[in-house]
Amino acid sequence: MIKILFSFFILLFSFFFQITVLPYLEVMGVRGDLLFVLVVYFSLKYGWKFGCFFGLCAGLLQDSFSVGKFGLGIATLGMAGLWGGSFSKTLFTDNLISKVVVFLVILGMHTILSFIILKIFSGVPLGFLKEISVPLLIYNFVLAIFVFMGLEKIYHAI
């Protein structure tokens, strides 16, 4: 129970870090999505029910302070939590390499889902996938490696 409550503390801390610090760490016009990284990590750790709930909470938090389409974060982060939890039951996700590989697959699925939703409701051009998604995939992949390693050390200490 303490670890689950601690995960929501990490969510709040990461959200404020994402809106205050990460805008200054842009690379190639994109910034990392720390909340997405956390959703996948916790869904792999605690399963699909917690992952989906955590993703919906993270998405609601993100959408509440966003100027974009309300509901996009709720839908995509909720689905990411569901996917991560589903993968955790069928794949071996106990070591860092397998977690990061699963993260990369879910990140690709998340990017495609985001594009489809944005295409339907905003008419986003196909160039979105090439110009924004590829750098975002790389940035979040590198971010996930460090976040996963840090969280593993924290959770082993608790």
Q: Which terms would index this structure?
A:
0% strand; 158 residues
Q: Can you characterise this structure?
A:
This protein is an all-alpha fold and 158 residues long. It has one domain. The chain is 80% helix and 0% strand. The protein contains six helices and no strands. It has helices at residues 2-20, 34-46, 48-64, 72-90, 96-122, 127-157. Helix 2 (34-46) packs across helix 5.
Domain count: the total is 1
Determine Rg (CA atoms, Å).
15 Å
**Strand portion:** under 5%
Structural class: mainly alpha
Query: Main sheet, how many strands, which sense, barrel?
Result: none
Beginning-to-end CA distance, first to last residue: 12 Å
Range of helix content: over 70%
| pLDDT averaged over residues | 86
Question: What is the H/E order?
Answer: HHHHHH
Enumerate how many helices there are, as a single number. Answer: 6
Count of individual beta strands: 0
Shape annotation: globular
Which segments are poorly predicted (pLDDT under 50) over 5 or more consecutive residues?
none
